[in-house]
Amino acid sequence: MKKYSGGFKVYPINGHFVDVRSEEEYPTEILIEDGEIKHALETPSSGIFIRILKNNRWFMTSTVKEQDIKAKIRELDELSGYSHKETLNLEELLNPIKESVIKYELLNPSKINLSDKIELLKEYESTIKKYKEIETYRILYNDKYLLKRIKNSIGTDVEYDKAVCGFTIDFRMRKNKNTFSGRFSLGNNAIEHLKHNENRLIEYLQEAKEFLSAKPIKSGIYRTILSEAVAGLLIHEALGHRAESDFIISQEDNTIEWPVGKRVANRGVNIVDFGGMPASSGYSPFDDEGFLARKTYLIKDGLLNSKLHSLTTASQSNEEPTGNARAIDAEHEPIVRMTNTFIESGKVSFKDMMSDIKEGIYIKTVDHCFGISTYILVPQMAYLIRNGKLREPVKISSIKGSIFKTLRNIEDISNDFKLIFNVQDGCNKVNQKDLSVGFGGAKVKIKKIRVE
């Protein structure tokens, strides 16, 4: 695979703004299903994304050859097209920066033999095989070392690297006619942290067995506590995508749902997006336009505070960029995407959150969640709370609601914090799928949620 020197130059052509992003990826994927290795692949790739801003419109292309950059810029300048009405003044938004944040070279998982990775997964597989209740299972392992360089015609020159690795075990348990489908995941920046965690898997599988005898809950309105993972995923899906400014700009009537300064939750509710967290799957110290990651409060002290922006949407909105222009690879343009989206910690312990609940539910894990503003959440592991204590597991078909009503019903926020390291099942938007993001934060207690 071609390695880029990083010495390529970017220059304005006929006064047009130009930026260039080079990427090198070293990914691995291993899939094991019911004891059989389906594939074990190492697929390094590289590419260069190039674009110019001409007549307030982006023209873009890609190449795999560093020496072709200058010619590609000239080709883009020769293209013609109608001029957008909006004037994009990107230079006013960008402060040129030159910075290198290379910190994961020694943790590069591509330097570890493929056979060693398979052996690691086999150790966890041996634990799975001890459970006669498991009738089928699937282990998916992924890792990647990524190196990016972003330069533009007004002087920005930044680079950073990133390492992620992890695996997910999906399984189905059966006892007579009762079944339960579960998921166990581990993710980190270093493969060493994935080793010798079989006890965590055993603990999860023992808990999963209890759900083989779980009874359906009666439909109704319940006081509900969401775990860090569930609350974070809900915020990502139902609120975070709504906060992406290209979504708002594309539908004029939606702007009424994001008036900055409007109270949408109780004081103390703070929801953040921030790519500058190193030990996270959404780590992105610079976005794909070379803008420095910024800690952006979507909601601050219960008030709508900010949207997420790229350079284009910030210019269109007369607002500041937030460092949220991201692309899945060098063949795609950067669009507005989340990084790590989370709920900041409060002051209440989990035990105290439950103490005044006579009958409610705790949702620990979720199968999936979808919907923007109005959402449907499908729990996986949930427990009944009775007289302030965590009780028996229950089956819940789904939870439906409006994210803004749910936010207004938040009563308490826990004093703990957990950011989910998400190696598989990345975020999907338009035609760009599986972008690495993180989500989580604190547990939240909600006054009333409709449970089916």
Explain the layout of strands and helices:
Blueprint: E1 17-33, E2 36-42, E3 45-54, E4 57-63, H1 69-78, H2 90-93, E5 98-101, H3 114-128, E6 134-152, E7 157-175, E8 178-188, H4 198-210, E9 215-216, E10 220-226, H5 228-243, H6 245-250, E11 271-273, E12 296-300, E13 303-304, H7 311-317, E14 325-326, E15 335-336, E16 340-343, H8 350-354, E17 359-370, E18 374-386, E19 389-395, E20 399-402, H9 403-408, E21 410-413, E22 418-421, E23 427-429, E24 432-435, E25 438-441, E26 444-451
Parallel strand pairs: 5-7, 9-19, 10-17, 16-25
Antiparallel strand pairs: 1-2, 1-3, 1-6, 3-4, 6-7, 7-8, 10-26, 11-12, 11-16, 12-13, 14-15, 17-18, 18-19, 18-20, 20-26, 21-26, 22-25, 23-24
Descriptive notes:
This protein is an alpha+beta fold and 452 residues long. The chain folds into two domains: 17-213, PmbA/TldD fold; 216-451, no CATH class. Helix content is 18%, strand content 41%. The chain contains nine helices and 26 strands. Strands 1, 2, 3, 4, 5, 6, 7 and 8 form an eight-stranded mixed sheet that branches. It has a six-stranded mixed sheet with strand order 13-12-11-16-25-22. Strands 10-17-18-20-26 form a five-stranded mixed barrel. Helix 3 packs parallel to helix 4. It is globular, with a radius of gyration of 24 Å. It starts with 16 loop residues before the first strand and ends with a strand. The mean pLDDT is 94.
- Tell me the fraction of residues in β-strands, as a range: 35-45%
Helix/sheet category: alpha+beta
Distance between the termini: 52 Å
Number of helices: 9
Mean pLDDT: 94
Number of domains: 2
Helicity range: 10-25%
Global geometry: globular
How many beta-strand elements? 26
| Main beta sheet | 8 strands, mixed
The rounded Rg comes to 24 Å
Low-confidence stretches: none
